[in-house]
């Protein structure tokens, strides 16, 4: 874990995020917290990560998301050498979408 980001303030932010109970609450909180461009950038990176995981090419990803090759490369580096945060979320999302998953 990156010790540069592990601060009391970041812990407090994550506690706030974990308190959200549905998408509408997420929209309300993140629209207050982030600028439109910041939120769109975060969502773009997440889409890039999903497409990289699916094996899409940089060209396909750039065309579909509008992300630069530099952004795609950064996300790819996180997928390959990061803290497995993307993988954790992708696996949980896959589990939650399974028809026989217990909720």
From TrEMBL:
Task: Please give the InterPro entries that the UniProt record associates with this protein.
Answer: Trp_repress, Trp_repressor/repl_initiator, TrpR-like_sf, YecD_YerC
| Molecular function, one GO term | sequence-specific DNA binding
Which SUPFAM superfamilies does UniProt cross-reference here?
TrpR-like
Matches recorded under Pfam families: Trp_repressor
- Residue ranges annotated as transmembrane are none
Q: Which domain of life is it from?
A: Bacteria
**Protein name, per record:** YerC/YecD family TrpR-related protein
Taxon lineage: Bacteria, Bacillati, Bacillota, Clostridia, Lachnospirales
């Amino acid at each position: 874990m990156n010790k540069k980001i592990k601060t009391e303030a970041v812990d407090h932010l994550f506690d706030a995020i974990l308190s959200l109970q549905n998408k509408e609450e997420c929209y309300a909180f993140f629209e207050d917290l982030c600028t439109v461009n910041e939120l769109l950038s975060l969502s773009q990176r997440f889409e890039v990560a999903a497409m990289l995981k699916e094996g899409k090419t940089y060209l396909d990803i750039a065309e579909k998301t509008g992300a630069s090759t530099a952004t795609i490369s950064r996300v790819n580096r996180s997928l390959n050498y990061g803290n497995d945060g993307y993988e954790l979320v992708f696996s949980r999302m896959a589990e939650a979408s399974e028809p026989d998953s217990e909720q």
